[in-house]
Amino acid sequence: MCGLTGFIQSVPDPQSIVSRMADALQHRGPDSGGIWCDEAAGVALGHRRLSILDLSEAGHQPMQSRSSRYVLSYNGEIYNFPELQKELVSAGSIFRGHSDTEVLLTAIEHWGLDTTLQRINGMFAFALWDRSERVLTLARDRVGKKPLYYGWSGKAFLFGSELKALAVHPEFDSEISQDALGQYIKYGWVPEPLSIYSNIRKLAPGCLLRLPVNAPAWSVKPEAYWQANRVCEQAWEKPYSGSQADAANQLDQLLTASVSDRMVADVDLGALLSGGIDSTTVVALMQKISDRPVKTFSIGFNEPKFNEAGFAAEIAGYLGTEHHELYVTPQQCLDVVSEIPVIYDEPFADISQVPTLLVSRMARKGVTVVLTGDGGDELFGGYTHYFEALKQWRRIQSYPQKFRSVMTEAINTFAEFNWSMLGNNSVNNGKIASWKRMSAKLQKRMRGLNANNPQKLLLDRFAR
Predict the structure, then answer these.
(1) Rounded to an integer, what distance in angstroms lies between the CA atom of residue 142 and that of residue 124?
(2) Which residues are 272's β-sheet partners?
(3) For the whole model, what pTM was predicted?
(4) CB atoms < 10 A from the CB of 177, how many?
(5) Cα–Cα distances in Å, from 248 out to 218, 240, 253, 281, 282?
(6) Does the pLDDT value for residue 222 go beyond 80?
(7) 31-45, 55-69, 87-101: least confidently modelled range
(8) Residue range 62-82, pLDDT digits in tens
(9) Read out DSSP for 114-181?
(10) pLDDT confidence bin for 424, thresholds 50/70/90
(11) Which long-range contacts (CB under 8 A, 24 or more apart) does 65-70 make?
């Protein structure tokens, strides 16, 4: 994990400002830091580095391309950088070191930004200054694993990996976004493009923003270079034709290659292990690839209802990993709650943030990088509500669509009428009468009745 930040604004002593902004991200990049300024254009770039590949000064950022046309501040990993580097060397490119940063920068200079974005495989967020065209480009990886904020405060265009870096700028506008607050109340987090601040946005996954140096505020909109829905449409147009066994073999090959790519590092790495299917799969593949026991880390609770450490220990024993576990008390969990707002910069209501913070701190004492299994249930349908939605879909298909539409409208109308008639005579000792609650329960149970496919049923019935 590294951190990037910067701004566009003609000000005296931009080095001092961007240096302070970068220092706010030192936790993301404790190994080194750097700044680069084009005072004539009013462009300032800052970086904090966590060294993972090429620990030498050859990987220092912000990094200039060999021709000095481009300057890059980058956070992430390009997993296919060895293959790209070989191709670039064959085309005549010369490299000073072996970092993926230099490969990314050289690829942009050789193929152009648009082609490079289509060719790289990785997680990333970066700021690229084109000194020739006088254009700053911000880009974020396809699924948004690496964060990137941007926006205008006063006359300054600000950007960075975290909001705390932007907040250091002397013209930062801290007005709270009412729309973002509404989204937070609804979802428990603030989805892009909003941020908790009115004048700051999150760059959406799979998007880039090209900003000419003199562009008026908010005159330029993000462009999508990759879209998940288009990938799904292409898969629908050309469905998989192999057998189930073929699909299982290909999945195994893809997962093995993905894990192998993420194990390329010049520092110690390990894995967070919960004992669930997703993290177990990742650790099993890591141990299969590794020539030494993989370092695994788990967190446990003394309350049996919430404790998964036993499952993780069993898996670790079976796979032969070097396992570490930490049992935490309720007080230890409470002690870190006050740190959460500082870490996330904006409201975030996922309770997993507390144990994740604790297990990450434990792991950091032994390794620099960890692999995790987050997202496995979402990708492979592991949650029980996926199965429940499919069962309900099969059940409601026995009723005609028109009948289900009429029933849905009738139930919603009844529920709305029922609540509109709520008066003092239906409240007893602060409790709503059971006949009033019944209509709400009926409406909830009938969600998705009018769905025309299982995906819509899942959304209506379980995603609210």
Answers:
(1) 9
(2) 297
(3) 0.86
(4) 19
(5) 47, 12, 9, 14, 16
(6) yes
(7) 55-69
(8) 999 999 999 999 999 999 999
(9) HHHHHH--EEEEEEEEETTTTEEEEEE-TT--S--EEEEETTEEEEESSHHHHTTSTT---PBPHHHH
(10) very low
(11) 65/105, 65/106, 65/108, 65/109, 66/93, 66/94, 66/106, 66/109, 67/109, 68/131, 69/109, 69/130, 69/131, 69/132, 70/105, 70/108, 70/109, 70/128, 70/129, 70/130, 70/131
Mean pLDDT of the chain: 89
The answer on pLDDT for 224 being more than 80 is yes
- Cβ-in-10-Å burial (0-12, 13-18, 19+) of 97 comes to middle
How many alpha carbons lie under 13 Å from residue 370 in its C-beta half-sphere? 22
Helix axes 454-462, 384-396, angle to 10 degrees: 120
The neighbouring-strand residues paired with 327 are: 300
CA-CA distance, 76 to 319, in Å (whole number)? 29
Q: Are 257 and 231 in contact (CB under 8 A)?
A: no
- How far apart CA 455 and CA 461 sit, in angstroms, is 10
pLDDT at residue 445 greater than cutoff 70: no
Output the DSSP codes for 168-218.
TSTT---PBPHHHHHHHHHHSS--TTB-SBTTEEEPPTTEEEEEETTPPTT
Q: Which two tokens stand for residue 198?
A: 């009115």
Residue type, 406: V
Q: How many C-alpha atoms does 46 have within 13 Å on its Cβ side?
A: 30
The residue written with tokens 């590294």 in the block is 2
The better pLDDT of the pair 429, 246 is held by: 246
**Packed helices 277-289 and 309-319: angle between N→C axes, nearest 10 degrees:** 20
Cα–Cα dist 265/285, whole Å: 16
Say if CB 256 and CB 288 are below 8 A apart. Answer: yes
Which residue is catalytic, options 2, 37, 232, 333? 2
How do residues 278-288 score in pLDDT, each as one tens digit? 899 999 999 99
CA-based radius of gyration for the chain: 26
Write down the pLDDT at residue 362.
94
Percent of the chain residues topping a pLDDT of 90: 67
The yes-or-no answer on residue 2 being catalytic is: yes
